[in-house]
């Protein structure tokens, strides 16, 4: 790895902008919405049986959308700006083991250092008939291939680790935790990545490789290999003149 390559997370502003470009170029949110609309209601139907209130724990969800949502007069929120590890330590220290009817972890397990311990802990907080929803990239996505093939040659950061649904289901199996896994197709238009000097493409390349200024700092051989692979069928599909990276998501529903 060239010494000039550095993690995208080392430049907060560039990371935020590259993430914004990713959202604009992908069907990530549409994919999540499809699951919420079509699959989730049936999955969580029994959670509220004979209960006057439903307790939901959102990890990594943030408060922004709630602030913009109407008709929430009868819903109470308590916000804690802390990592899942900090929350876990606080709960253990204060012995406040509250049970939850629904826990969701959306695209956040990449930022947890000890994933099996985190899964085990939050599973103990599920009430009777409760569910835990975990969303992360699928083991059949292009991310899985990209990380496995090139992860060791890209700058890694303590803030983030490469993990897909394939890794997660193996962890759950070892823990003896029951779950169901649903995969939904999502794509990311990376066509601009193959246009020299295209700002959107350069930011998308940064996001894909988690490397700050990948196009100008990566060794030429590494850049050539990755750019070639990104156009291969195991990573992307070509449709109507566009290169669509496989951004498929897995929705893992954990049982009590």
Automatic annotation (TrEMBL):
GO terms for molecular function: histamine N-methyltransferase activity. Its EC number is 2.1.1.8. Substrate binds at residues 28, 247. It catalyses: histamine + S-adenosyl-L-methionine = N(tau)-methylhistamine + S-adenosyl-L-homocysteine + H(+). InterPro entries: HHMT-like (IPR016673), SAM-dependent_MTases_sf (IPR029063). Inactivates histamine by N-methylation. Plays an important role in degrading histamine and in regulating the airway response to histamine. It holds the Pfam family Methyltransf_23. It comes from the Eukaryota. Gene3D superfamilies: Vaccinia Virus protein VP39. It is an enzyme of class 2 (transferase). GO terms for biological process: methylation. The keyword Methyltransferase applies. Monomer. Keywords: Acetylation, Methyltransferase, S-adenosyl-L-methionine, Transferase. This is Histamine N-methyltransferase.
